[in-house]
Each structure stands twice: as C-alpha cells, then as structure tokens.
Amino acid sequence: MAAPGPGEYFSVGSHVSCITCLGQRLQGEVVAFDYPSKMLTLKCAPSSGKPNLSDVVLVNLAYVSDVDVITDRAETPPHLASLNFNKLVNRARAEKEEKLLQAYAVSAGVSVEGQQLFQAIHKTIKDCKWQEKNIIVMDDVVISPPYQVDNCKGKEGSALSHVRKIVEKYFRDMESQKSVQHSQQAQQTQKDSALSS
C-alpha cells in the first residue's frame, strides 16, 4: 500500500484512486477515513448508471495498491445531511418483523414452497401473517397446506379472488422457471455429451 503512511490521512472531499487486490480500479470522493482500521469510504460513480445516485464503497487499504490522491480538499468539508431517525427506526422495525415472520415459518415446519408463496403474497399484500402452518391474508383469507389455489378459503368476494390470482400467478411463474431450468439442463447435457464424444 502506497498511502497512507504514519500520521497521514485522507481529507473528506478529496478525490482518490486505488487498485484493489482483485485488480479493480476504484476512484471516488472521500466520504470518511478511519486511520486505526485503515478503512476508506468512497463515493463513486453509480454502477446503475443513474446520474442522481452514487455507489458508496468501503475500502480496506490493507488490500489495495497504488493509492493516489487526484485532488486534495483544503477547505472544511460541508456538514453531513441530517438523517430522518424515525424513518430509519421504522425501517429497522419492519425488517425485524419480516425476519421474525420468516423464522416463525421455518420453526413451524412450513414447506419451502409455502414460505416462498408467503413471500410472494407479502410483496403485494402486507397484511398477511402465519397462524401455525396456515397463511392468513387480510384476516379474510386462509391458505392451508399444500398452499394451492384450492386451499384458499374465505368469504367469497374481492379479497378471496385477489389472493387466488396471486397464488395462481405464483405457481405459473414457478412452472415457467422449472421449464426454463429443465431446458437449460437438457442443453448443458447435450453440450457435455457432444464434448465427450
């Protein structure tokens, strides 16, 4: 590693370039630098290509070479943007609840297919939960194992119809994925047998 030496640091707002141990060139603006751990945070051009976004990359300087300061920032960096703490707390709570739902399904012995169906429904309708091995949607529809369209029970109406459509689409998508995988496997088998001949 060429930089930083003893007592050296990177100024926030400076632009640096380095090459990772994998040979990848990183270039960006320094967002943060921790000298004791030799960790550098860079704001780089977006990999998505969207101009209003940036990639934030954490770089362990122990695994890079040719660190070059392109431009050094002499003035005081701007203040950090304030964070919406309530939004962050709500997001963390929602993620925790999501993980707990997944853990409950695993501990209750729900099949993988049932867990995947639950996730597919939950993407569209947030109001769904587990009740033992049954999926409860909007407190109106119950889907029991083996989680097929015929296993959707509830009061006839738009909620039941909507859930049945989601279940139908899920199984259609699963079948199309399986057929694509089978055709890819068959093509690979044909290639392998042609190469071995």
TrEMBL record:
GO molecular function, one term: RNA binding
InterPro entries: AD (IPR047574), Lsm12-like (IPR039683), LSM12_ABD (IPR019181), LSM12_LSM (IPR048478), Sm (IPR047575)
PANTHER family: LSM12 HOMOLOG
Low complexity: bias regions: 177-197
Domain AD span(s) in chain numbering: 81-175
Organism this protein belongs to: Cyprinus carpio (Common carp)
Family as reported in the entry's similarity comment: Belongs to the LSM12 family.
UniProt protein name: Protein LSM12 homolog B-like
Region annotation (Disordered) ranges: 176-197
Domain Sm per the UniProt entry, residue ranges: 3-73
